[in-house]
Amino acid sequence: MTTPDDDTPKQACPICGKPTAPAYTPFCSKRCADVDLQRWLSGRYAISGREDDALGQDDGTHEE
Ligand SMILES: [Zn+2]
Q1: Cα–Cα distance for residue pair 27/17, rounded to 1 Å
Q2: 51 burial class (0-12, 13-18, 19+ CB within 10 angstroms)?
Q3: Which residues take part in binding Zn(2+) (predicted)?
Q4: Is the pTM of this model over 0.70?
Q5: How large a percentage of the chain has pLDDT more than 70?
Q6: pLDDT, tens digit, for every residue of 18-42?
Q7: Measured between alpha carbons, how far is 24 from 18 in angstroms, rounded to an integer?
Q8: How far apart are CA 54 and CA 6, in angstroms?
Q9: Which of 9, 11, 29, 53 has fewest C-beta within 10 Å?
Q10: Contact (Cβ atoms closer than 8 angstroms) between residue 19 and residue 28
Q11: In the 8-state DSSP scheme, what is residue 61?
Q12: How many angstroms does the Cα of residue 13 sit away from the middle of ligand 1?
């Protein structure tokens, strides 16, 4: 550890690419952390909707 401050590669915020802030790791700010949270919630909603759609497809396998 000769130059810990200069040689250490700083992680970039996955949302905007800015250097991350220790208080909001791995994001650069509360705003970007909130953006990621909304994306995560949107993903859950999308998965939940797909499961519901799969049930409808299963119903179409019946024969007459
Ligand atoms: Zn950011």
Answers
A1: 9
A2: exposed
A3: 13, 16, 28, 32
A4: no
A5: 58
A6: 999 999 999 999 999 999 999 999 9
A7: 12
A8: 52
A9: 9
A10: yes
A11: T
A12: 5
Give 59's contacts (C-beta < 8 A, 6+ positions apart).
Answer: none
Distance CA 30, CA 33 (A): 5
Q: How many CA atoms lie within 13 A of 35 on its CB side?
A: 12
Task: Label each residue of 10-25 as H, E or C.
Answer: CCECCCCCCECCHHHC
Binding residues for Zn(2+), as ranges, are: 13, 16, 28, 32
